[in-house]
Amino acid sequence: MVFSSPVFLFLFLPMTLGAYFVSPMAIRNLILLGMSLLFYAWQDELYVLILLGSVVLNYGTGLVISVTRGVWQQAVFWLGISANLLVLGYYKYIGFIFENLGFTEALDAAPLLPIGISFFTFQALSYLIDLRSGRFEVQRNPLKLALYIALFPQLIAGPIVRYAEIDIALTERWTTRDDFSSGMQQFVRGLAKKTLIADPLGLVADQIYALPQHALSPETAWLGAVSYAFQLYFDFSAYSDMAIGLGRIFGFSFPKNFDYPYTAQSVTEFWRRWHMTLSRWFRDYLYIPLGGSQVSAPRLYLNLWIVFLATGIWHGAAWTFVAWGAFHGVLLILERIGLQKVLTRAPRALRHGYLLLAVLVGWVLFRAESFGQARAFYGAMFLLERGNAAEFYPMARYFSGYVGITLVTAAVFSVGGRPKMSDFLTPHMSGAAQGVLSAGTFWVLFVLSVVSVGAASYSPFIYFRF
């Protein structure tokens, strides 16, 4: 069940809203937790046990950390951290390990990946780390900690929320009319990004990435690469928008996860704008403990590379993800060494072009099923290999007027087209006119999204597999 599915939109969400808002405040956490577990069970009921196991593990570890000191506290803390990482490693990486060790006969016994395990495990880890650091008091109510870990809006694809960010809201929160209205508006904007932009371009990308490697013409390869870059951004940022909007409806304030990353002018800036909660997690819990920037230059570069190698591994159990993370780490090191200074003296268009090219090259590796497929795309895109033109699949097979309009729309809105239009129109409109425009936009986007949902058979949330 994804946020853009009819089951969620017309059954689960109305049922949850109704049960939540008609219930007294005293049991709203219980209602929300029950619906969150139902939401997760909808994906696979057996994996609810893993989620509940994470709750029990981290609740118990937190309690022991709060009543011990010194070496015993340290031992329990590291035991809890290790247990979380072992569960994540077993479900996400054991098949990858078996494959690389040559244990092909054991691959059939490797477990399926529980959806969202990377996200809720990182939230649990941050709870234990921040608790031991004394940033808040231990949560003694198991239902509240369970709600923090299992809260359905951000359970399976983020944003990665720190416990301290919703600690008070777990005990006392309320939803104003403005909260409900703005939350619904953000949810529908995310729904529109998903159904009207990400899904159509994702279909194009999937068709092109499914082609035989020798059949890629340069223009077809570029279309596939650009379509995937937009699909990934609008798919993931759409989920974040919907999660943040739903959180606000229920009285929670989730952190922002995207800030128009394709407007960045360096890879360093890109990572301040893309999946911001993950970047912040690795900064606070890996980069800074390694010494951060308060070390010698060689150690600083090593720290950066380690962090982005870990970022690649976090995204998936494949060597292509490892290479993608290492690639971004190398770019960040180069910018630290001196490329950043060169960029600051270059024209803005050149800086932006560098960023887009670097990110696009990385996304090809991120999407490719193998290094061979990535090499085929690079060869076609940059004319490094000459294929047989008679075997090429023409771009016209995948490009249409609708795809062209969607690509232009994606380009406009990926660089802040919506707030720029709002800033232009708002000073020239009365308050009543602004209200009419806002309501009209909401309903137009909702209706178009629902029509798209009903007509489309392709609507995955691609970050679910991470």
Record keyword descriptors for this entry:
466 residues; 71% helix; mainly alpha; globular
Short overview:
The chain has helices at residues 6-22, 28-43, 47-67, 70-101, 117-132, 142-150, 163-171, 177-209, 218-249, 267-273, 276-287, 297-315, 319-345, 348-367, 371-381, 401-414, 417-425, 431-455. The protein is globular, with a radius of gyration of 23 Å. It is mainly α.
Commentary on this structure:
It is built from 18 helices and no strands. It is an all-alpha fold. The mean pLDDT is 91.
Could you tell me the number of beta strands?
A: 0
Overall mean pLDDT stands at: 91
Largest β sheet strand count, sense and barrel closure: none
Roughly what percent helix?
over 70%
Q: Give the terminus-to-terminus CA distance.
A: 16 Å
**Overall 3D form:** globular
Instruction: Note poorly predicted spans.
Output: none
